[in-house]
């Protein structure tokens, strides 16, 4: 299935102030490039990384999951040489990110919001994505890092999703529908959601959609459509 490779490729796009929702036990934790910015890198290679992560917030509804994710992050960082450990702010938040006040919107919003396989367990995925859109940096807001790409910066922050749901073939969707209730009872996951419709209903701007596994695995990049009302943290 090469799912880990798909996670890695998507998360490699994260930069700036990062929020990961539905973090679970931290399966994506070691995929982030959290190396400190190295001024010598540009001297050696004539360029520097433009994906610098400056801060990262991990969120989940489950206190148990957040504790496991915290332990995994600390374990992952301690295995690194000291000069390669993350130097930015790291925050762990327990609660439903959809509820107002659970996630504080930083000044300028989040540059990157990540979620992998979260929509399947949500009762109101459209409203949840709209909340992520408000937490994101809005079009025209200054980016956290000067990447020399004004056009990209003006588009606002990005929402990176890896999800599963209905695919490209009706026979396959019928099969998923027939098994969905039993699967949800066992795992709390409805794997037959209409991801395409959820994305359309969210009103967010679609930058990219890629589908795999007969269309049942969705890799999605979204951006805020227009500047929306938001409350920033002090």
Radius of gyration: 18 Å
**What is the oligomeric state here?**
single chain
Number of strands: 7
CATH superfamily: Vaccinia Virus protein VP39
**Largest sheet, if any?**
7 strands, mixed
Report strand %: 15-25%
Total domains? 1
CATH C-level category: Alpha Beta
Q: Output the strand order for the largest sheet.
A: 3-2-1-4-5-7-6
User: SSE order, as H and E?
Assistant: HEHEHEEHHEHHEE
Residue-averaged pLDDT = 88
What count of helical segments does DSSP give? 7
N-C termini distance:
44 Å
Estimated helix fraction:
25-40%
CATH architecture: 3-Layer(aba) Sandwich
Report low-confidence residues grouped into runs of 5 or more. Answer: none
Question: Within the CATH hierarchy, at the fold level, what is the topology?
Answer: Rossmann fold
C-alpha geometry? globular
Structural class: alpha/beta
Secondary structure blueprint with pairings:
Layout (H helix, E strand, L loop, with lengths): L2 H9 L4 E5 L18 H7 L7 E8 L2 H16 L10 E6 L17 E5 L8 H11 L14 H4 L4 E7 L5 H18 L7 H8 L2 E8 L4 E7 L11
Parallel strand pairs: 1-2, 1-4, 2-3, 4-5
Antiparallel strand pairs: 5-7, 6-7
Helix pairs in contact: 4-7
Keywords: Methyltransferase, Transferase
InterPro entries: Methyltransf_Superfamily, SAM-dependent_MTases_sf
Organism: Cyphellophora attinorum
Describe the structure.
With about 230 residues, this protein is an alpha/beta fold. About 30% of the residues lie in helices and about 20% in strands. The chain has one domain (about 5-225): Vaccinia Virus protein VP39 (Rossmann fold, 3-Layer(aba) Sandwich). It has helices at about 5-10, 40-45, 65-80, 125-135, 150-155, 170-185, 195-200; strands spanning about 15-20, 55-60, 90-95, 110-115, 160-165, 205-210, 215-225. Strands 3-2-1-4-5-7-6 form a 7-stranded mixed β-sheet, sandwiched between helices. Helix 2 (about 40-45) links the parallel strand 1 (about 15-20) and strand 2.
């Amino acid at each position: 299935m090469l799912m880990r490779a798909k996670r890695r490729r998507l998360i490699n796009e994260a930069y700036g102030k990062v929020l990961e929702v539905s973090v679970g036990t931290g399966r994506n934790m070691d995929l982030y490039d959290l190396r400190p910015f190295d001024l010598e890198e540009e001297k050696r290679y004539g360029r520097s990384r433009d994906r610098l992560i400056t801060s990262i917030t991990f969120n989940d509804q489950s206190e148990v999951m957040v504790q496991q994710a915290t332990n995994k992050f600390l374990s992952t960082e301690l295995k690194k040489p000291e000069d390669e450990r993350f130097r930015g702010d790291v925050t762990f938040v327990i609660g439903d990110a959809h509820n107002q006040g659970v996630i504080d919107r930083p000044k300028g919003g989040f540059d990157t919001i990540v979620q992998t396989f979260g929509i399947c367990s949500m009762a109101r995925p459209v409203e949840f994505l709209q909340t992520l859109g408000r937490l994101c940096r809005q079009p025209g807001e200054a980016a956290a890092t000067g990447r020399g790409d004004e056009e990209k910066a003006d588009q606002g922050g990005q929402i990176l999703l890896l999800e599963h749901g209905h695919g490209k073939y009706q026979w396959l969707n019928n099969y998923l529908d027939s098994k969905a209730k039993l699967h949800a009872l066992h795992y709390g996951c409805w794997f037959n959601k209409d991801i395409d419709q959820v994305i359309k209903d969210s009103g967010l701007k679609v930058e990219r959609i890629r589908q795999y596994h007969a269309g049942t695995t969705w890799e999605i990049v979204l951006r805020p459509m227009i500047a929306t009302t938001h409350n920033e943290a002090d």
